[in-house]
Every structure is written in structure tokens, then in C-alpha cells.
Amino acid sequence: MFGNLETLAPDPILGVTAAFRRDPDPTKVDLGVGVYRDEYGNTPVPAAVREAERALLAEQRTKVYVGPAGNLEFNERIVALALGPLAGQLRERTATIQTVGGCGALRMGAELLHAAAPDSVVHVSDPTWANHEPLLGNSGIALERYPYYEPATRSVAFDRMLGHIDRLPAGAVVLLHACCHNPTGVDLGPEQWRAVADVLERRNLVPFVDLAYQGFGDDLEADVAGLRLLAARLPTLLLAISCSKNFGLYRERAGAFAIVAENAATARAIATHQARTGRRMYSMPPDHGAAIAARVLVDPALRQAWEAELAAMVARMKQLRTLLAGRLAARRPDLDFSWLTRQRGMFSLLGLAPAAITALCGEEHVYMPPDGRINLAGVSDANVDRVADSITRVIGRR
Ligand code: LMR
Known about the structure:
By secondary structure, the protein is of the alpha/beta class. Helix content is about 45%, strand content about 15%. The chain has a seven-stranded mixed β-sheet with strand order 2-10-9-8-7-3-4, with helices on both faces. The chain has a two-stranded parallel ribbon with strand order 1-12. The chain has a two-stranded antiparallel sheet with strand order 5-6. The chain starts with 13 loop residues before the first helix and ends with a helix.
């Protein structure tokens, strides 16, 4: 039955982890998959998350099903974290379902779009996260790209982006990264978010916001200012939330998908479709990660501790950006690396030719996906000179 299946090429991001693990070189460096790392290269579970988990384990008396929408307290709290005071104002118009991580949220959104409007097209940024197109497209939905990144200035190609969006037909769906754009690290500024909101509103377009890094760019509020602007102004908004990075809950697959609908009746109908879609794919979401995140958000002491840990992670990533930019500039004073410090989140694109990226992974044992995206959190005081040396050696290779 399966004999004619060909072996597939590795996933562009997850394949990097596998290649890194296979490499026996003791000095190898992993700048691949987007997970936060501390100065020792570990991806710790935040203390507040561990504490919440301990409390849950002590109290839990049953593993009975949670229900199709998942943990309702989690759904409410996580949407409130994203939308702030707006969440209360929009409660009747919002339908939320707990999902299998942020990927599950994106896929849930695509499935619902495909069911409700099979001809709708989702427009994603060029470039975008390597899994966006496979993950969304596999639902049957059509995908197209809008210009987003200007390699020459290493910033948002904003005029081209806005001009492109302004020509989309009414009803088109525009996928936006709320913050910490993956893979470029370049985000829209406040004025740009306002201009995007204007166009979406005027052209009757539908925003689909991917919120995978709340709190990883600047802070929990600033990172969602653009999202909140859209939620306040647009009649319909799709929102995919991940708890992988900010709660350190990667393998627990905690996430949520919400739609802010035009009215309460539509939101109620959407909730039934969310439940049915989940039931048909995996029945019900897993409990553990969402229950932990809910606990952290509900308990004032845990929440305060978590916010402090998150702030420390962000501060470290900003320091690492400055550190690497400085070490590269010291080696190549003729080149500008200040863009590294202006970008946000874990990722930046090195902007090197494919041969240079191949050499970095193969000859230098510094691992990253083929697009040259680096995870800054993989840099440390201990390896920054080694990384800067390697990058410097391959710059200019074609
Ligand atoms: C990444 O972009 O590296 C992360 O979001 C992990 C993944 O699943 O790709």
C-alpha cells in the first residue's frame, strides 16, 4: 500500500535540529529551531510554569475529557492577555477554541475559512514562517504572497506591502505576524499598523493574526498594540495564539484560536463549527499545557513571577543582538550590522548567499535553516566569537 511513497526531504526547520544532533563536532552551534535558550544553551521551563504544574498535579483527581472547546478558563484568559480590556468589550462577538499549539490554531483557522468560504485566499508575507504555507494550504485554502521584506534596508517594504494589500479584492484574508516576524525580525511600527488597519477597513479585508511571540519582542503590551488596533476597528478578525515560547510550553502544545465576528449570533455559530472541526480532526485538545498557562494567568503571584521571567528573556535576546552585531562589526568594520539590534524577537535573516549558508552549516558547524534565518537565542557569551568568526569567513561566498 505504501510501497510507492518516496522519502521526503527533511522539514526546513525541524531538519536542522536533526542534522545538528547528528554532527559529532564538539564546537557545533545550533541557531536553528525557534526555541529560547539561556546562556548555557538550555531551554528552561520558567519557574512560575513549573510551580503551576506542581500545583495542578497535586490537585488533579481526574483525567476525564475536557470538552471540545478545551479549558474555558484558559480560552478566556489567553484571549484577555492578547486583547487586553478589549476582550471584555468583544466577549459576545468572540468564539474561542483551545488548540493543539499555535500550529493547531492556524490550521483550525484555515479549516474554518475553507468550510465557510472555500474560494477565499489567504495572503501571507513574503517571506513568512516556513510552515505557514504547508500548514494552511493543506486545508485546501489558496495562498498568495504580499511583499513584506526589503533585503537592501533589512526593514519592512512598507510601501510595496500597503500598495499590494490595497489592490486585494474584498473578502481577501491577510495573515499578519503580531510581533517578532518570523523569519525576518522586522515588525510594523505603530504608524504602519494604523495604515494597514485603514486599508483593511476600507477594502473590506479580513486580518488573520498569528500571535506566536507575545512578550518576546518588547513586552506583553507593546507586542500586541497592532493586534488590538485591528480588533478594535475591524468587524471580523481571526487570531491564532501560541503559548509555546512565552510560557516555555513547547511540547505541551498549548494554543488557542479565536474569531472576533461581526455579531454575537455569528460568534455562537462559529463556536459550533470550531467544535465540530476539532472533533473531526483530533476530537479534543490536550489539557495539560493549557491548564498550566491558565493557572499562571489566574494566580497573581505566579503571573507576576512569569512576567518577570519573560522580561528577563527579552532583555537577554536584546543583549545578544547587540553582542553579535558588535562582534561582527569588530571583524568587518566596513559592513553595517546595526540592523541586528533594530530587529525584534529571536530571528533575523543573515542575508547571505545560499553557498555561504551551506558553508556555515557544513564547514563551520553553525546550523540554521536554508533561508539563513538565525535564532539569536542560540548565541551566548561562550560562543559569540566562534559564531562571528564563522559568519565572517563565509561572507562574500556566492
Ligand atoms: C520556528 O520557527 O523555528 C518555530 O516556530 C518552531 C517550528 O515549529 O518551526
